[in-house]
């Protein structure tokens, strides 16, 4: 009996050492050269290899939904820069449909607010929204934690990452964040040009100038979003009745304001706009041509003027923001989960 | 050296039961009905021949102790009386109803603030500061159910409701009088209020107004 107890103790110490050994490891998160400092507080959730692996498994696992049919990746596919494609609004359990076009997920460490209306104020808390929304995953947190804690796979993965085999909300949500934080898109052709490793073609270079004149105020480089809530000039869809930021703050000035999306990976993330009403990039450019937009600080911008030539050049430039290395990064793909 | 109070504060933050005898003076929080303590579920006559049953009351409180913010989630359905591990270091201290502002913007937390406690507005974000659920024959539909989830919206300008606890040689009991509070609701016309906003923050303030602090002489 005493021998068995000693053996168990030795095993636990060994497992603990293995777990603690996985904690610092090589950080899978790196700030690209020349980029701003991330807003995410990594000191409160240090990214580890084991934590990322747990988060990655959770992200792809439909166990997160009430009927185990829908995972995060159902609406956020790696091959679409973690957006969805081909349909305007996100699809949930039981064939339900949401009110918004699922946004692309990358470069989230630099994002201060989440969701198109900024309802989530921290990346760690964001996943609660789709998990519990009846039109998305329709699950409750206690039920989900109970399901995860029945799984030897997740118990082991939690132990590896956190030294604790009981999956709690902080363990689940922080692990999901760790995986999401590794989704950094910074290896597009644009980035190579900025790093001096490539040069723009003539149309791309002209398009870059047009971009700087017409688009930069809302889509500043290198993230191509100012993360603010702006009016995109689209009328409200009478069926969806989505008032955007207003629904969070109830401030009339926030009506029809939506978070400015990044312009990276546009080729992979169609349809466009908060409700996915535009299927083609050309439609978006047509929409903005001639528009006089008002910023979140009520500054009236000069009307956007895009000549037919500018349009060609701008499109050429925007396509340099496609990041194939990010899209096809095997580290972002679905892992094998054996429950 | 870690003081006994520090240990108690840490235990409280972790949601661990606190040994009462270690405190000397105690501060207890209970529910009441017209000045008398009650336990849930509690049925009573309210209005002319109208029966009202309180089934669930959950409430966050927080205060500062030794420079740290301490949060408690008081679940009166599971426990009629809650003891706060408070040591009054000055002549008075402030106890806030609800959670500290902006907690949802600071990441996920465990213990009483774990979102699995069911006190988190996932789509509108932020903590539900208090919940009251029950039934009343004053409510003519939805199986006589009433349900209130109280709290504020993001960036909503409002003052956190609070109580001031004065130093005393006696034990103290904070009694939240639910008869007083229910009178502040428009139960018959608005039996369900489950979104944050001005109405919900007004009812949270009403909770503070309906609290009575009594000294208990041993």
Key descriptive features of the protein:
heterodimer; A: 339 residues; mainly alpha; two-stranded antiparallel sheet; disordered N terminus; B: 218 residues; mainly beta; eight-stranded mixed sheet; five-stranded mixed sheet; 3 helices; globular
What do you see in this structure?
The complex is a heterodimer of chains A (339) and B (218). Chain A is built from 14 helices and two strands. Chain A has 339 residues and is mostly helical. In chain A, helix 2 runs antiparallel to helix 7. Chain A is globular, with a radius of gyration of 22 Å. Mean pLDDT of chain A is 89; it is low at 1-26. With 218 residues, chain B is mostly beta strands. Residues 1-24 of chain B have low confidence and may be disordered. Chain B is globular, with a radius of gyration of 17 Å. In chain B, strands 3, 4, 5, 7, 8, 9, 10 and 12 form an eight-stranded mixed β-sheet that branches. In chain B, strands 1, 2, 6, 11 and 13 form a five-stranded mixed β-sheet that branches. The A-B interface holds A 41, 44-45, 118-122, 124-125, 128-129, 131-133, 141-142, 145, 168-170, 173-174, 248-250 and B 102, 104-110, 114-116, 118, 120, 122-126, 153-156, 197.
